[in-house]
Amino acid sequence: MSSLSLPFYQKHHRHYDRDYRNTQLSSTMQEYRQEEKRSTATHSHRVRSKFSDEMLETSSGSPQMKRAKQDYYSKGKENEAVDYIVPVFRGCHEYFSGTTSSKDERTKQSKSSHFAGESHSALSNTIEEHNIEKSAMHKSRKVAIRESAERISLNKEIYDTQDFHKRLREDSLLRLPEFIIKPRSHTVWEKQNVKLHCTVSGWPVPRVTWYKNNVSINVHTDPGKYIIDSKYGVHSLEINNCDFDDTAQYRASAMNAKGELSAFASVVVKRFKAEHGDLSFHPGRIAPPSYDYFPGDPHMKFEVHFVDKFNVSIGKEGDTLSLGCTVIVHPNLKRFQPEIQWWRNGIQLLPSKWVEMHWSGETATLTFTHLNKEDEGLYTIRVLTKSGYEVHSAYVFVRDADAEVAGAPGAPLDVYCLDANKDYVIVTWKQPAVDGGSSILGYFVDRCEVGTNHWVQCNDTPVKFARFPVTGLVEGRSYIFRVRAVNNVGISRPSRVSEPVAALDPADKARLKGIPLAPWTGQIIVTEEEPAEGVVPGQPTELAVTEATRNYVVLSWKPPGQRGHEGIMYYVEKCVAGTEDWQRVNPEIPVKSPRFALFDLAEGKSYRFRVRSANSAGISEPSEPTEFTEVTDKLDVPKAPSHVVPSRNTDTSMVVSWEESKDAKELVGYYIEASISGSGKWEPCNNKPVKGKRFICHGLQTGQLYKFRVRAVNAAGLSQFSHESEALEVKAALAAPAPPYGISVLESVRDSMVLGWKQPKFQGGADITGYFVDYREIIDGIPGKWKEANIKAITERAYRIHDLKENMVYQFQVRAINMAGVGLPSLPSEKFTCEEWTIAVPGPPHDVMYTEVRNNSLVLLWKAPIYSGRSEVTGYYADVREADADDEKWRSVNEKEISKRYIKVQGLKEGVKYVFRVRAVNRAGVGKPSDLTEPVTAETPPGTKEIAVNVDDDGVISLTFECADMAEGSKFIWSKNYEDLIDSSRVTMETKGGKTKIIFNDPGKDDLGIYSCVVTETDGVSSSYAIDEAELLRLLELSHEHKFPVVPLKSELAVELLEKGQVRFWLEAERLSPNGQCKFVFNDKEIKNDEKYKIKVDHKTGLVEMIMDKLEDINEGTYTVQLQDGKASNQSSLVLIGDVFKNLQKEAEFQRGEWLRKQGPHFVEYLKWEVNNDCSVLLKCKVANIKKETSIIWYKDDREIMFDEKHDFKDGVCTLLVQQFSKKDAGVYEIVLKDDRGRDSSTLRLLEKAFGDVISEVCRAAAQTATDLKVQSTEHGIRIYSFVTYYLDELKIIWYHKDTKLASTDRVKSGVTGEQLWLQINEPTEKDKGRYTLELFDGKAGHKKSVELSGTVFDEAFAEFQRLKQAAIAEKNRARVIGGLPDVVTIQEGKSLNLTCNVWGEPVPTVSWLKNDRELLGDAHLLLKFDSGKFASFTITDVRTTDSGKYSILVKNKYGTETGDFTVSVFIPEDEEVQVEQEKAAKKK
Which of 246, 316, 630, 695 shows the smallest number of beta carbons within 10 Å? Predict the structure, then answer.
């Protein structure tokens, strides 16, 4: 990067020069070194005198000479080291020599040339010993053992003597460490790497330790940050991805037995376009680890194993995804638990709203709560322990979410904010891989103030450059940003929002965060400035164009040094090339920050710019103008990559490599797309740009041909696509096989041993063609060199190694070979002694394997033991136990020994892991068990198919097997009884694609057995089929049927009648080919298809039929159908003679008559009756084929029943309702239908039994309508009653009291009043209490209703009865006027009126008379009499007009009162009336 594009604060940094440091710093560091050198020399002199006295007593070259043994767990402070030592650790990828190695080892490594004489002597001794051992082979074993012991003792004495002299020689060579080349200081930019070198001499070889600010550097606390290396006397410290915290003083300390010496160097790390405290935009930054490291025993090793590892994952935007695996650390110490770290693309992840981390002590999980394309990358789990770390990695791909508008582009990603200031920030992003099918026109940038949900679009027109300056921010507020892509179809979904950024001056932000603006250099500079209030600020300096595109230009400058204590603002001016006119760009709104973005400039023109400062005192002079800047894109779209080459990786992935784009600037990365050859559809392989020139594309379809293309990305846009690669099929690449394992000894004799081993778990995609065995001798625990046991590869997994030495200890290793080459050797086996086996029982079986794994069974196979013992092997036992169970849980699969070398293990539990072993048996007993098999889970693999048996049309018997998961090079291997098929004459094998079969040439008893098939290069695809005698007999019978076939019939020849009385003969075959033929034969004469016989054959359904219009007498006989279909034939006959024929003929005639009847109006359902719920009887029938002119007539006993209305044939039902059905309704009912098409009738006889059935049903309906029994009190007693809807005499009524039938008496009576059924109990007593039941008998069954008359019910009813009884007595004896009085009496004046009425009452009532409600008293004019207590008379002797009025008689006794009213009207004769009127008129005058 040129200096013109650097900001002002980087170009004028005090350490920014072409040298690695400035003069002042150099002189300071030189003085510091001299002082340190003087102090070190004094210390070294003291150390040298002390060490010279103790050198013969110590054998360690550690700097901690004569110290007590280190104790890491003191009593006072737990986990705190009493003394300090730099521990030795071993990482996963790099190894470092320890600090506590013995002096002998170090001196042996560096001064081996001084002891060449001793080495030559040792070699001579070795040759001599070999000769002695060779001659000793001919001696007895006891003599050989004694001589060997003496020889070992002598060798030990010689070795001790040589070691003593070696130490004496070393004393004269000891010298103090000395730095030949010292490390030098460096000044670097952030994210760069720096390497410090030094060269040290001294004897013993000094140990170099690196320190940072006097703190020892531990490479394991921050893996990947530091790399310490020591090679050929050159020691180096490499610091990767330097950040601001790496600014420090570094020290290299060299130490040996003579003393210690140090050298110093400084590293200064400078910032580049960054904000202090905001490192979120550094894509390569390595986060500081949080692992709290405990020093401990350097020999303590922690083994880390990953179980259930996470694999390559493919998610979708918005999904939730989890990565996890089980971590097993051994030993598991609670005090030293591992630290789990998650990394993405070399950057450590911390918990956030996007990712959650969980560690349960066994399972580590990383969960994405909402997947984004920013989450795509290589994820690594790093497990840190005391002795190093282990990692596991897998890639996570994130696909685009479905667009809201079909055809819209994918969302942009990686939105970051750079160069934030008071009112200005630069937003950057990366272009999406998916453009929706049309080119992206540009991008919209949105901002949102933190704490709100209000998004504001920052640009009116889309910008194509992937970087945009946002202005107009409010100082002191925080913002988040997002970006949306636009094409011709629509707008994409918004990107993930950026991290919040504050609109603050960088100096203010640094002060708020408490972070210094520059690294400490060892000097403090204090400046004093006079108050400058009210002073016009100076002009800005270092004005520069930091970025220019065709849409905008960004300016930056340095604030003036003279500005007072108040804030300043800026005015920006521009000038078009060729003129001297300066125009102010922001005349109304001054700029607060030393950054400004200019928009709306004319594309293609050149401009100059200058800036003025301003405050309340005034405006400064303009700054120096910039050079002319053309408004155009300075950054070009990169060129397309080239030479895209795919290569195979796995069966679902490929490695794609390419040549990088030439002359590409500010390259962001590459997008790779894949397409199935011929489809024309391209899909992105990555949605986040990747750097480099190689990428693994996952999620491909196995067996498909794919083409690839690549394009580059930078801020200016996406390049054109590269040329398409050649199409390549997706399949696993070949590789060398993995190492074999499980080496064991199968037999041992005096000079040879037989080894067995297990085949590699990974075969490299090709068959293993052989094995190579190596061995080495172990003498006094020291292993020798490896020797080849076989030069030519062996195919079996058992091999005898000859020419071994008796009683010698050996180790073995095995390598497998395939088409790709020889694999790595296995781990060295256990130590085995070559000695004669003399045990009586057999050795272990070997090559134990399983196949045909299912949910509850599998087949176990093995080979016979090499060593059979003192007698032949007679059988085997197979044992099983769960994989995690104890050895006490072993159980035998077979109770009795079996002679076969295979067994089917059944009764397994689905989903449970098991291990197996096999033991051999001879007459001496049961031998040693074999090695355990690998754990296997009892579950049927998905898509498993079984061997199927088939018998074709020619009767050929075959077994077929299919496999859909075959890989390239997979083969079908058939076996019989799990041994190779040797006799190929009995079967023929055919294989085509993923299907194979064996054909039995001549099936017989020699073919009995279990036939199995295994598919190589698969995950154990296998199956078997057992053919025993019963199965063979079934297959032979089926084969005979196919050789001599018959046409199978579903049904034999049958006959049925059709609607018109036609006769149908038919049969149905299971199948008939289109060429199948049939014949109908009647009495040995073929029937032809004509008008009388209609023959039809349906070859699809196999239906054969013949229809005869009418069955006549001449048609009596035998009918036969003959079928012929290719080689197959069949026939079926039907005999129609005698009564069978006559009944069929009669039924045919009846059907024909019925059909003719139905041509006119007819009855579908004949007349029948039913009883309704209201006990009425409904006569009804159902008719069809009715039209408007059809008439209906009802008859009873041949007399027409007349209706007022015409019958409505609604729903084709005719009805006649008979209310209150009784005996008078018995008779014969008939209904007649007729019109011009015909006549039909239906008769219903309701007589005798039929009538009785109707009556019984009516009674039943009536009984079912009976209400519940109720209790009612009367003046005579208690009445129990129920109501029915309809009562008829045939309904028998029976009353029960306490299950005793009641008879009618004077006191207890029953009866029927209307629809009320009652039981009257007069003068009830206590004996009448109890349950009363009413039974209604309809002639067939009884219907009962009950009520309980006792307790409160009886008491209340009895009380009411007493009350009513007294009321009846009172009503009977009360006073009353019985009669005799008229309502109105009209009488002539002067006449006599005499009225008499009868009166009743007990006791005799009193009588009084009233006139107009006033009591009358008798006198001469009015005579009132009451005789005999019965007769009351009323007499007016001389009636006058004044006697007119309302009169009443009132009778009264103790039971009541009654009144009788009458009116008396007196009239005057006509003449007298006139005279009276005249007299009245005269009086008025």
Answer: 316
